[in-house]
Design brief:
11 helices; mainly alpha; about 0% strand; about 280 residues
């Protein structure tokens, strides 16, 4: 039996749109923070610490959700956590090789990919404007990421980030489906805890097969980055965004516009490199 929130508990439209705008501000301002943090920690260790801290904070403030958990909610949270982990893993790994501004723009393409994925894998009908938007986004990605020397010299970080955008697109679709059937509070906590567990398992597995060594150089910059990403960009942002998704009056176009605002904020952030600059490749 699915447990959905009562309509009276849903935030109204302006509250939901404000929540999405606030989440966009948080997400858009963390690209540079994450990139700087990766100078002091390996990708999966950073993600594991980030989502563990976020999961603990959310569990402490939402302890009641564990008393009413249903099996369907647990599975829904794990599915959301899987695609969220894939998105963050690809995006964070990509930030080792590409610029923060490229990462922001490519990640924003997930909004355009949502209707395309719905059409291809969910069998949904989309309008002609969706295809025009997809072509325009593809053209923008081409001129942003393909170097003059050709596809053979494509930045590996941009490729990884595109896979992140695909993962985020599926995550957005599943959030839209599950938020109508389950508690937003339960889903927000469960997906973050699942993401943390997957990050730890991947970090241990990658270290065991010598794919990526566990690296952690403890300093204030690293722990500040983890705290900012965990508390604000994860615990607060995901709780707010899932609650906003329960408001049907909030259109998909709003989240699309806000996603682009996030990229604009990120590109203007101090420390962000030029769009055409290339980060120095380092062994992951």
């Amino acid at each position: 039996m699915h447990r959905a929130s009562h309509s009276g508990s849903h935030p109204n439209r302006w509250q939901a749109e404000f929540a999405l705008a606030f989440c966009t501000l948080l997400w858009g301002s963390t690209f540079v923070v994450v990139k700087n943090s990766l100078d002091h920690a390996s990708v999966f260790i950073f993600l594991a610490l980030r989502f563990t801290l976020a999961g603990v904070c959310m569990a402490l403030f939402r302890r009641r959700v564990f008393r009413m958990l249903q099996r369907e909610e647990i599975f829904a949270g794990i599915r959301l956590g899987f695609f969220m982990f894939c998105g963050y893993a690809f995006q964070t790994a990509g930030l080792r090789y590409t610029t923060a501004s490229n990462s922001g723009f490519i990640t924003g393409s997930s909004v355009v990919l949502v209707p395309l994925v719905l059409a291809l894998f969910w069998g949904k009908r989309v309008t002609l404007w969706v295809y025009f938007g997809t072509i325009a986004a593809a053209a923008g990605l081409y001129f942003l990421t393909i170097p003059v020397t050709g596809v053979a010299h494509l930045n590996r970080g941009d490729v990884l980030t595109f896979f992140a955008a695909m993962s985020y697109a599926v995550h957005i679709i599943l959030v839209g489906e599950y938020a109508r059937e389950h508690s937003a509070a339960a889903l927000s906590v469960l997906q973050v805890l699942a993401c943390a567990a997957m990050a730890w398992l991947t970090a241990i597995g990658a270290h065991a097969i010598r794919w990526q060594e566990m690296q952690l150089s403890s300093n204030s910059e690293l722990w500040t980055g983890i705290a900012v990403c965990a508390v604000f960009a994860t615990a607060v942002a995901f709780s707010s965004s899932l609650a906003a998704c329960c408001t049907r009056a909030t259109g998909r176009n709003v989240s699309g516009v806000l996603e682009r605002i996030a990229c604009a904020i990120e590109c203007a952030a101090p420390g962000s490199r030029s769009v055409n600059a290339t980060a120095s490749p380092r062994s992951a």
